[in-house]
Amino acid sequence: MENNIFSKYIKLIMKATQLLAEIRENLKDYPIEYLRNKVTDDRYKDPLTKSLAKYNSEAWDEIFALNITEDYEIKDGVVENIKNDIDFYFDTYAGGDEETREFTKYISLYLALMAKRPLHPVGESPAKDQVFLENGEYKCKTRIMSIKDENSLCRYCVCKNAGFSFGF
Fold this sequence. Notes:
This protein is mainly alpha-helical. The chain has helices at about 1-10, 15-25, 30-40, 45-65, 75-95, 100-115, 145; strands at about 15, 75, 130-135, 135-140, 160. The protein folds into 2 domains: about 1-115, no CATH class; about 120-168, no CATH class.
């Protein structure tokens, strides 16, 4: 009987090294150079596209350079919830690009649960950027509204609400 209780507990917790290995396995074949090239390619005019490409390709680099010296526990249920919520988002809003879905899923797991950084690029100006650092805290202008969306990833993001004073 004790083994069954212990086995159930083990399934609820995973080590950070296990999650990192899963993330690496699922990102290793992603064409990262394509994403890196978006940063400097003049065909991509949208500053958000360029910013996301830079932020996510830098996160990809961190993932493959990371060496966890002190392992820690991550709730497996949170990992599964993030995966399911990203699947919901892509099924509902973004169509069937499986490669982008999986990339987004594993970059988001890394940013939210390991790097403890925002899921969106961090800007420098509270006046013009959606996500910014203020007094040592990440703030997001859209979180206050977006967190209400069904299966919102804002629930996992480290950002705090920037509030209505930033232009809502």
